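Here is one chain, start to finish.
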Amino acid sequence: MASPGGRDAPGLDRGSGGACGFRGFRGCSLRPFDVVITVLALAVTVFFSFRIYATPERQEEVIVKGPGGSWVFPLEAEERIEVEGPLGTTVVELRA
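Its structure:
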């Protein structure tokens, strides 16, 4: 890539197709910061993978919220709840 003055930018290997060109990784030299970023990205990926997939299964639940509070019930619960709201009473019925 030519600079505005017509000369090539310093350090640019004209025609190589980029930092490593199309030669693959053999012609590339990794700098210490490249290694740090790669290791950090791998560590974050592994951490969140274990955090998401290695946690024990939680029981499925239903959360009912209203102006008077909130209630948590297991999904298999058989309940009938009357919640007071701004437009009157709402009846919430849970059936398995």
